[in-house]
Amino acid sequence: MNEPVIRASGLRKEYSGLVAVRGIDFEVERGECFGILGPNGAGKTTTMNMVQGYSPLSGGELRVFGLAIEKHPRKIKARMGVVPQENNLDPDLTVGENLRVYARYFDIPKKEGALRADRLLGFVALSEKRDEKIPTLSGGMKRRLLVARALVNDPELIILDEPTTGLDPQARHLIWQKLRGLKKSGATLALTTHNMEEAAALCDRLVIMDHGRILDEGSPRQLLERHVKGSVFEFEAGGERLRELLSCLEGIKQESETAGDTIFIYTDEAEEVLRRTACFSEIGFRHRRATLEDVFLKLTGRELRE
Amino acid sequence: MNNLLKPPRVGRRAFKVWLRNRDTWLKFYRASLVGNLAEPVLFLLAFGLGLSRFITDIDGLPYINYIAPGLMLAAAMNAATFECTFGAYTRMSAQKTYDAIIVTPVSIEEVAAGDILWGASKGFLSAIVILAVLVPWGLAASPWLLLAPLLFLLSGLMFASMSMIVTAFAPSYDYFAYYFSLVVSPMFFFSGVFFPLTSLPAWVRTVSWFMPLTHAVNISRGLATGNVSASLLLDGLWMLVFTLAAGWLAINLIKKRLIK
Ligand SMILES: Nc1ncnc2c1ncn2[C@@H]1O[C@H](COP(=O)(O)OP(=O)(O)OP(=O)(O)O)[C@@H](O)[C@H]1O
Ligand SMILES: [Mg+2]
Known about the structure:
The complex is a heterodimer.
Chain A: E1 6-15, E2 18-28, E3 33-37, H1 44-51, E4 59-64, E5 67-68, H2 73-78, E6 80-83, H3 95-105, H4 110-123, H5 139-150, E7 157-161, H6 169-184, E8 188-193, H7 196-202, E9 205-210, E10 213-218, H8 220-227, E11 231-236, H9 240-247, E12 254-259, E13 262-267, H10 270-277, E14 285-289, H11 292-300
Parallel strand pairs in A: 3-8, 3-9, 6-7, 7-8
Antiparallel strand pairs in A: 1-2, 1-4, 4-5, 9-10, 11-13, 11-14, 12-13
Helix pairs in contact in A: 3-4, 8-11
Chain B: H1 2-5, H2 14-25, H3 29-52, H4 63-94, H5 97-101, H6 108-137, H7 148-169, H8 176-189, H9 202-209, H10 212-225, H11 231-258
Helix pairs in contact in B: 2-6, 3-4, 3-6, 4-6, 4-7, 4-10, 6-7, 6-11, 7-10, 7-11, 10-11
The structure holds adenosine-5'-triphosphate (ATP) and magnesium ion (MG).
């Protein structure tokens, strides 16, 4: 009964020569929101594709609902909802038909399918658009409709690949709110994102992934405590005065990092830093709390991904 | 290679894919039916009436009566082929409709089979609407025509499966130009729709024997004229074997292409 909803061990995926996922282990417990965080090309979508039964594994083991994915794909898919990274709504159908036709793939009777379609359109605030064509929707509306579509079979597990990328804050917050609601009602969520705010806002637990490997795992709070100090100071680099400033910080427990023209100082002794830098008022700096983004950048580096 | 020979596992859910296509078709079925009907009727008028003054009867049939049964099957071929090349390719690549369906309990094999069934239905329908014109026109009149729907269905499946094989390999829409100009058009002209193959050199007849449309036209003409012989059974068998093989292969090839 305590079987995790997803259990991956040694999960691997190879595309003709390129290893996209290099043997990763993770578990997703019932009722939690699990996140995979990682830069472009990290292997997030590839991992999710395997969990969806969309891509066959190249190695390792993957159980969803306690069932081996390659043995019981249909049973698993019937209990799962998927929001893909790329829009694949059916442009030949209207908004409402997209949901009703999708419900049919799950063997949901016509009447019930129509009821669910209407309820879900209300849920994602698209009731007005019911009879519109897909190409007339904005990006955010399409995204919301994809979320609604993933829910037609009342899934126990919902997989979301970058659910809010490219959305405005209103749409993003609406989706977050809906996802939290779904979690409250007992669904298990697994999502990928490179939005740290999203990870912090939604995920109980996350893994940070890069180059097909999992770099670390924990709750957002644990990851913060493990990898960065509480406060961050960002200084524009350069000049004699800055060197003086930095030298007067000696003795304070801190970690510093230089990236481009910015110096980052991570510390738990913010008050002390503020006191000692008071006489350098002409040097501009920013002081903020450390966020998951700092953890992310620390673990995955600052270079741009191709 | 091994995977291509494995029997595809297709269940009742293929029908859901068929329904999805039917739902989209119902939105513009009038235009679609008129399109299906217009071309063969134009051929009948232009060739049948226009040319018949210059052409003597063929096999004891006025020219228009001679070409009518073949045109039904050519229409079935065109409709099924169009649906399972351009239509299926659009759903598979540009629209990602297949991707959306295969994360539901409907499998890849069922998606491919559903699209083949749909292509077959379009072919069937095209031929039926023409038959519905030919009979009152007096161009086809034989009780054997009661078997025509069976022939149309088998032909639809045959051409849909064939086209789906091409779609499984197509890197872009342009690729279909090869199929249309090297396979579909030669088939249209050299399968005995417009003239008896006996008037051609032996090697052309041999090539024609390998063309699916030839056998469909043979049967169609037999049914329309009532001139039915046992050799039509062989044509039917040819079609059945070819269709099973092509359908089998098409489903496995689409699966192979879609698996990432
Ligand atoms: N179908 C494919 N064929 C070949 N290589 C692929 C395929 N899909 C993904 N890859 C490669 O696998 C690696 C991981 O890609 P993946 O899409 O999983 O990354 P991601 O973490 O989802 O990135 P993003 O944030 O950009 O969506 C990349 O190097 C990518 O080029
Ligand atoms: Mg991705």
